[in-house]
Amino acid sequence: MDGMNVSDIIKAALAEDIGHGDVTTGACVDPDAEGTAVVIAKEGFILAGYEVFLEVFLTLDPSVDFSVNRVDGERVKKGEVIMELAGPLATLLTGERVALNLMQRMSGIATLTDKYVRAVSGTNARILDTRKTTPGLRVLEKYAVTVGGGYNHRFGLSDGILIKDNHIAAAGGIAAAVIAAREYTPHTLRIEVECETLDDVKAALGAGVEIIMLDNMDVATMKKAVKLIGDSALVEASGNMTLKHAAEAAKTGVDLISVGALTHSAPAVDISMKIM
Amino acid sequence: MDGMNVSDIIKAALAEDIGHGDVTTGACVDPDAEGTAVVIAKEGFILAGYEVFLEVFLTLDPSVDFSVNRVDGERVKKGEVIMELAGPLATLLTGERVALNLMQRMSGIATLTDKYVRAVSGTNARILDTRKTTPGLRVLEKYAVTVGGGYNHRFGLSDGILIKDNHIAAAGGIAAAVIAAREYTPHTLRIEVECETLDDVKAALGAGVEIIMLDNMDVATMKKAVKLIGDSALVEASGNMTLKHAAEAAKTGVDLISVGALTHSAPAVDISMKIM
Amino acid sequence: MDGMNVSDIIKAALAEDIGHGDVTTGACVDPDAEGTAVVIAKEGFILAGYEVFLEVFLTLDPSVDFSVNRVDGERVKKGEVIMELAGPLATLLTGERVALNLMQRMSGIATLTDKYVRAVSGTNARILDTRKTTPGLRVLEKYAVTVGGGYNHRFGLSDGILIKDNHIAAAGGIAAAVIAAREYTPHTLRIEVECETLDDVKAALGAGVEIIMLDNMDVATMKKAVKLIGDSALVEASGNMTLKHAAEAAKTGVDLISVGALTHSAPAVDISMKIM
Amino acid sequence: MDGMNVSDIIKAALAEDIGHGDVTTGACVDPDAEGTAVVIAKEGFILAGYEVFLEVFLTLDPSVDFSVNRVDGERVKKGEVIMELAGPLATLLTGERVALNLMQRMSGIATLTDKYVRAVSGTNARILDTRKTTPGLRVLEKYAVTVGGGYNHRFGLSDGILIKDNHIAAAGGIAAAVIAAREYTPHTLRIEVECETLDDVKAALGAGVEIIMLDNMDVATMKKAVKLIGDSALVEASGNMTLKHAAEAAKTGVDLISVGALTHSAPAVDISMKIM
Amino acid sequence: MDGMNVSDIIKAALAEDIGHGDVTTGACVDPDAEGTAVVIAKEGFILAGYEVFLEVFLTLDPSVDFSVNRVDGERVKKGEVIMELAGPLATLLTGERVALNLMQRMSGIATLTDKYVRAVSGTNARILDTRKTTPGLRVLEKYAVTVGGGYNHRFGLSDGILIKDNHIAAAGGIAAAVIAAREYTPHTLRIEVECETLDDVKAALGAGVEIIMLDNMDVATMKKAVKLIGDSALVEASGNMTLKHAAEAAKTGVDLISVGALTHSAPAVDISMKIM
Amino acid sequence: MDGMNVSDIIKAALAEDIGHGDVTTGACVDPDAEGTAVVIAKEGFILAGYEVFLEVFLTLDPSVDFSVNRVDGERVKKGEVIMELAGPLATLLTGERVALNLMQRMSGIATLTDKYVRAVSGTNARILDTRKTTPGLRVLEKYAVTVGGGYNHRFGLSDGILIKDNHIAAAGGIAAAVIAAREYTPHTLRIEVECETLDDVKAALGAGVEIIMLDNMDVATMKKAVKLIGDSALVEASGNMTLKHAAEAAKTGVDLISVGALTHSAPAVDISMKIM
Fold first, then answer.
1. Is B2's CB within 8 Å of D21's CB?
2. For the domain that residue A58 is a member of, what is the CATH number?
3. Across the interface, do D187 and F234 touch by the CB < 8 Å criterion?
4. Tell me: the pLDDT tens digits for B41-98?
5. Does the annotation count F190 as an active-site position?
6. Are D160 and D185 in contact (CB under 8 A)?
7. Is F164 a catalytic site residue?
8. Which of B70, E51, E132, F28 could form a disulfide with E167 if both were Cys (CB 3.0 to 4.6 A apart)?
9. Nearest alpha-carbon partner for B212 in B196, B223, B221
10. Cβ contact D93:D130 at 8 Å
11. How many domains does chain C have?
12. Closest chain D residue by Cα to residue B142
C-alpha cells in the first residue's frame, strides 16, 4: 500500500462522515475525557486492514495509543479481541464508524479471497483480482486480496496491457494489435490477449503474446487451450468464477484465475468496537 | 445527489483507473475512430446510477452522445438494453470499467433495498440505510437506497443526533445526555436515543426524545417497547436485520428499520457494455 | 470546530498572504534569530479564537512555544496581555497578520453576540446565528457565536429543513411542502416553516411542523403568533434584528431569535501583537 | 480579479453551504421547474460583485440566464432592481444565500471605501486598503476597494516590501534593513519603511527609501513629516483612520492613506433576492 | 498524454505565474480589446507540444481561436510560423510565457531525442527515456520523447520492475530477487535486471529474466553480453550515453538504449510569440 | 523558499514517480531492513537543494537520519561525499530518483548562474533570472539562482510591472502605459519598461519610469542607452545572453543582466546515491 494514498483515503472518509462536526459527541462527551476500547470479531474471518483501522484514529489524534493482538492475514475467531485502543473518548467515538467501515470491507475481501485460494489448493493456479474494485479504494482492496492469499492483476490501465475483443477489432486483428502494443507501450510490460475461442488462442500464440486470457470458456475448451498453449504463454481463466467453477478451472492447468467477485461482491465481516 | 460532489468522485475514480494513460487503447485504437456501445443487463435488477454511468464518459469527452431506455428505479430484465452510447471509440473503451463499477454497485444496493422494502410491505415501516457505507461513495450509495424504495438516515455525524450507550455513559445518563444535546446542538435536529432495554426506553421517554432506536432487541421486547412508546416518539429498529427479521420487526409496529447490509454487503449486479 | 477543516482554512489563509515568500522578513531577519511576542487587547471585548491564533504559528513552525493568559469566552480589558509566544522571529513576523485577522474577526463576532445575549437576558429567548456568514469561514464564525453565548442554527442546507415562501409556492402550499419534507428528508431533522402572517402560522400548526419562524413580523403580531402556537412548536423570530428589536421580540415569548448581523456585520476588535 | 481564483472561492463557498445537498429544496421543488428572480437593493449603496453573484448560479448550472441593470461602481438606491435571473427554480433557491453573502460583503466594502474617498476629496490623497482582509477572500475584497474608488496596497507578503519596527530592530537599524532589502529582493519592488517619529523619517530618507509610512502619527507631526520628505518619497499615513482623521490627514499633503476598516469592519449591505 | 493530468499541470503553471493577477496587462490593456498573435520558430527544431500550448490559452478563455500550420513531430525551420491565435488581447499576453515555457521545453526534448534516434539509425536499437524527468512534468516529457522518435521506459515505480544492485543485495542475490518479484508483482510486468558484469548477466539469464540492462559497460563487454544473451532476453544499454557512445552501443546489437539526458539536460528551443 | 509550497512540490513529485507503489522494492526489500547511503558528486559543481533532497526522504519517512558535509552555495568536487543518510532501506530506494532529479536540476542552475556571475565579475552588473522557468518549480529554480550568486527578477505577473511592446501599443504609447500602471497598480511596485531603441529609452525616461530594460540591443547601442539614462533609472540588459555577450553587456555599465538560459537550459549535474 502506498502510504500517502491511504492517508488521503482516510482523510476523505473522515471528512465525509464528520461533516462540520460530530454533534452528538460534542454535546455529550467532555473533550478532556479519556477512554479505552476493544475491537472484537463478531464472526470468524481473515483479518485485513488493522493498520488502516488504527490510522483513522491517529489521523484524528496522534496521541491515541493501542496494542495489537492480531495482524493482517491471521484467521480470527468469533469473540476474539483484535486490538485495544486508548485515547480521548471523543476521538474514539468519532472515528469508530469510518475505521470499522474500512476494516470490515477489507477483511471481507481477504476472507472471500481465502475461500477461493482454498478452493484451488493442490493446483498451480493463483487467484487474481480484477479492476472491478470500489472506486477510490483500489489500493486497499488489492492489498486485501494479497492478505487473503491472492495475487494482484494490473492495478489500472497504465500498468498492464490487456488486449480485448474491441481492441482487436479496432487494430484489425490479433497480430496487428500485438504489433501496435509492442511499438507503443514500454518494453517492461508483458502483452496479454483475451481469447474467446481456440482460434483466438492460436492467433495469440502466433503473435507471440506472453499471456493468454481464456474468457468465459467452458472447462472442456479450457483444457484444450491449456494443452495448445503449453509453455508458450501464461494462461489466465476469467469469467463468472464461482468457487466451484474456479476449482474446476484450476484443475485444467491454467496458471491464473481472475475473480471479479473478490472485490465487487464480498460481504463485509462483522466487527464491533466497544468502549470499556 | 450533490452534483459537484459526484463529479469529484468520478474524476478520482478515473484518475485511479487510468493512471498515466490507457496504454492498450492508446496502442490499438485510432484516436479519431468513432464507436457505439450498448449497455446490457446480464441479470434482472433495479437500475440505479445511469446518470453517473453517463457522466463518466462525459467527463472524459463531452461530445459523447447517448440514448436512454431505462431510468433509475425501473426493474430491468436479463438481456435488456439499458442505454446506448456513441462517441470516440477510445473514450468508450477507457471509461467502461469505472462506469460499470459505479452503476453495478449502485444497482446492487437498489436491488437489495427493494427486497427489504417488499419484505415489510403491508406495514408502516420504512427501510432505512445507515452510515455503514463505502468510504468516499456515501452520496451515491444513499441515493441508491432511495432508488430502491428505502429512506435515508442521517448522512453523517453533523446532521443528526444519535445518542448511543457510550454517549449516555459519558454524559451521566440518558436525561443528562438529552439535556446536553438540547443545549449544544441546533434546534433543527431531532434527538434520537439508542435503547437496549425497556428501562432505557422509559428513560428516553422521560427525557422527551423524539426518536427511540431499539437496538438488537428480540421481537417480543420490541413489541413491548412499541406499545410503551405509543405516539410519543418515532421508533427505529436496528441490528442484524435479515430479510426475515426485518419482516417480523415491521409487524411490531416500528416506524423505521435500519439495515447496514444495504450498503456494506450488497453484491454488485451484472451489467455489460458491448461495443457494436 | 472540526479540526481538519480549521487546519485547511489556516493553510489557505497563509498561502494567500505569504504568496511565494515574505520578502521583507527574508531580507531583514536572520532565519536563526529567536523572538518573543505579546498579544495585547487594544480595547475591551469577548475573546474568541485564541487556539486558531496559535495554530497559525504552529502551522508555520511546530516549535513555536506559548503561554496563554485568557481563553475563549472571557471578557478581556483594554491593555491586557492575552498570551505570549516564543519562537523563530521570522515565523512570528510572517504569521502575525493572518493570526490577527482570524482572531480579531472571531472576537468581534463573540462580542456582538454577547451584546445580543445581554439584550434578551431575563427572557427564555436564545440568540441564534444564520447562514449569513463569510464564505469559507462558517465553522469559525458559528463557533464564535457560541463563545459569545449564542446558539447555532443549522450549519448549511443539508442539515436542517427550513421551508420558505418559495418552497411553499413550489410545493403547492404549506401542508404539501411539509408532507414532501417528511417523505424526502431524514427523520432525524425537524421541520421548520417560515411564516409571514398569522394565517401562515395556522397552516403550519395544522401541518404539524416542529418549528415556526416568524419572519419580519411586528411585535404585536409576534405576540399573537406566540399565543397561537403555545407549546405546539418552537418559535423563532427573524428579520432585521437590532439590539432593541431583539429585546422586544424576546419579551413576546419566542424561543429563538436569529440575527444575521452577528456574522455579516460584526466589526473586528482591535488586537495587537508586539515583538519584545 | 483572477478568474481561476474566484472560481475556487465560489466552489468552496457552495460546498460549505450545500454540504451533501439542499434537502428542503430537494423535497419541495420539482427538479424540472423553472423560475425567475429579481435582485433588489434594500438600502442605498455602491454595488460591487454582481459578476461574482452571477457566477455562483452559473457554477451550479451553466444554463441560468440573466439580465443586468446595474454594474459594479454604480450607486444603487433602495428598491432598485439590480438584475434578474431565470433558470431552474431549484438552482435559484440553492445558490441564493452564497451569492448574496458574497455581493453584500463586497458592496459593503465598496460603500465604505466610497465614504472615505469622499472624505478626502479635494486633496491628492488616495485611499488604500491593507492586508486586514477576510482570510480566503482577499482577491474579492481588494477588488471591491477599487470599485469604491480606493487603491490597493500590496496584495501580500511577497509582492511588496514594508519594513516595520521589528524588521528594523532585527536588521540593526533602518539603513541596514534597507541595504538588506535591496540585496535580497527583486529590483522591481519599491522599499517602504514604517516610521513612528520624525527621527525615523530622517533615517528613512537617509537610506533612500521610496515610500515612507507615517504610523499612528498625530496630525501636527504628520505635517512636519510631509514637509521634511518633500518629493523624496511617497508618503503613506496609517493607523486608526476614522473618516474624520482621514480627512485631516489628507490635508497634510500625504499621498496615501491606508484604512484597515475598509475590509475588516465594513458592514454588509442589505440586498434581497425574490423569486417571482 | 492523459488529458486530465495535463489540464492540472496547465492550471498549476498558470497559477504559479499569474499569482493574484497580471498587473501590467490589467493596467495597460482594455479587457474588451481583441488581438492576434503568430508563433514563430527562432531556430530549427522538432515541434512538440503545440496542443499544450493552445490549451494554456483555452484554459484562460475558451473563446480563443487558432489555426495550426505545424504539428508535433514535424521539423520546423527558423522563421516559420507554427500557428496563429486570435482572442482577447489580455489573454494572449497573460498566457504567453507559460505556453512558451511548456512548448519550448517539450520541443527541446523532441529535438534532442531526434538527434539520438538519428545517431543509431541503421541499427535495431530503440532510444528510450528514463525516470530522470522534471518533477511534475513527466507525462509531457515522456510524450515529447515519443514525438522525437524515441520510446518510453516505465513511467514510474509502479508500472515496471527494474531490479538494481541494491535490490539484489537486499534480496540475497539475483535469483532470489527474481523469485521475489515473480511472487509479489502482477504477472503483467516483465522483469528487468541491471547487470554490471558478465557474471551478472549470466546470473540474470539463469533466473529467466525477460530484460537485461547493461549498466555502464564498455563497448567491448557490451558486445560479449549481447552475444551471451542472444534471444533469451531483451538487452538495454544504459549509462552516460553521449551521442557517440549511443551510436557505438547500438552497433553491438542491443535492443534498447536509455538516455537520461533526453529529459534532464535538453536545452529549450527558441520560439517567440508576436502580437500583430 | 516558501516551505509549504516546497512540501507540495515534493509530494506531487513522489506521487508522480511512485504511482500506486514501488513494486520492485516491495518485492525485494524487507520493510524492516535498515540501510545507509552516501550522496556523491560525479563532477564538480555548485551545490543547491540539499535540503530539498533530504525533505524528499523525510516526506516518505520522518525517521530518516542524515549528516550533511556540504551546503548550498559550496563548490563541490568530483568524488566528494555531499551527505549521508540512514533509515529504512526501502525508503532510501524509493525516494532516490525524485530526490536526485530535484537536486541535480537545482545544482545545474546554480552552477550555470555561477558561470555568468564570474563572467561579469569586476563590473557592477547583477545576473538576474527570468520567468522562463520550469512550470511548477519556479520557487526552487529562483532559489537556485540566488545560490549561484544571481538575483531574482519578479516572481510572476502579479509582483512586478514590466511594460512590453504589446502593452505599450495597447495603451497608446509609453507615456500612456506608465500613467495607466501608476493608476492601476500598487504603489509598492516600481515600473519597468522594455525598450528596443534609443527613442524608446527617451520616451521611458520622459515618463519617469524607475527601470529600463534594453531588449536585444547590440553593445554599442547599449552603451549609448546607459549614458542617456545615467542615474535616472536602473538599467537591465536582456536578450540571448551568452556568457560572452553578458560579459560585454556588463562592461557597458548596465545594472542588471537577465538570462533566460539560467533556468530553461541549464543541464543537470551528475550526482549519485550509493547504498552502502
1. yes
2. 3.90.1170.20
3. yes
4. 999 999 999 999 999 999 999 999 999 999 999 999 999 999 999 999 999 999 999 9
5. no
6. no
7. yes
8. F28
9. B196
10. no
11. 2
12. D20
Same-domain check for residues A148 and A239: yes
CB within 8 Å: A60 and C3: yes
Of A164, A190, A224, A251, which is the active-site residue? A164
| Model pLDDT, residue E161 | 97
Q: Are residues D60 and D195 in the same domain?
A: no
Residues of A with CB under 8 A from a CB of C: 11, 14-15, 18-21, 60
Please enumerate residues of F whose Cβ is less than 8 A from a Cβ of A.
Answer: 11, 14-15, 18-21, 60
- Give the ipTM of the model, two decimals please: 0.95
Neighbours of B159 (CB within 10 A): 26
Centroid of chain to Cα A18: 27
Task: Kindly give the confidence (pLDDT) of every residue in chain E, 276 residues in length, as a single tens digit, with 9 standing for 90 and above.
Answer: 566 689 999 999 999 999 999 999 999 999 999 999 999 999 999 999 999 999 999 999 999 999 999 999 999 999 999 999 999 999 999 999 999 999 999 999 999 999 999 999 999 999 999 999 999 999 999 999 999 999 999 999 999 999 999 999 999 999 999 999 999 999 999 999 999 999 999 999 999 999 999 999 999 999 999 999 999 999 999 998 999 999 999 999 999 999 999 999 999 999 999 998
Q: Who's near D136: CB < 8 A, 6+ residues apart?
A: C9, C12, C13, C16, C135, C136, C137, D9, D12
Q: Are C64 and C101 members of one domain?
A: yes
A21 and A61 housed in the same domain: yes
Same domain, B102 and B206: no
Query: Bridge partners of F83?
Result: F39, F68
Query: Measured between alpha carbons, how far is E116 from E263 in angstroms, rounded to an integer?
Result: 12
Question: CA separation (Å) from B266 to A143, B246, B263?
Answer: 21, 16, 6
What is the grid cell recorded at A184? 507503443
Q: Indicate if D30 belongs to the active site.
A: no
What are D3-24's pLDDT values in tens digits?
668 999 999 999 999 999 999 9
Percent of chain B clearing pLDDT 70 (strictly above) = 99
Same domain, yes or no: F87 and F146:
no
Instruction: Verify that D155 and D217 share a domain, yes or no.
Output: yes
Domain of D60, in residue numbers = 3-116+266-275
Segment C80-130, tens digit of pLDDT? 999 999 999 999 999 999 999 999 999 999 999 999 999 999 999 999 999
C-alpha dist (Å) from residue A219 to A202, A239, A252, A260, F136: 18, 12, 7, 19, 55
Q: Count CB neighbours of F62 within 10 A.
A: 8
Q: Which sign, positive or negative, has the C-alpha torsion D136, D139, D142, D144?
A: negative
Cα–Cα distance, A107 to A50 (Å, whole number): 9
Closest CB to B139 among D11, D20, D60? D20
Using an 8 Å Cβ cutoff, are D116 and D123 in contact? no
Check whether residue A28 and residue A104 sit in a common domain: yes
Q: How far is A58 from chain C (nearest CA, A)?
A: 13
Tell me the pairing of strands E34-41 and F65-68.
unpaired
Q: Is D16 in Cβ contact with C136 (below 8 Å)?
A: yes
The pLDDT-based confidence of A4 (bands split at 50, 70, 90) is: low
Answer yes or no: F274 catalytic.
Answer: no
Nearest alpha-carbon partner for C161 in F159, B188, E99 = B188
For testing contact with chain F, the best of E24, E139, E168 (most F CBs within 10 A): E24
* Chain B residues interacting with chain F (CB cutoff of 8 angstroms): 19-20
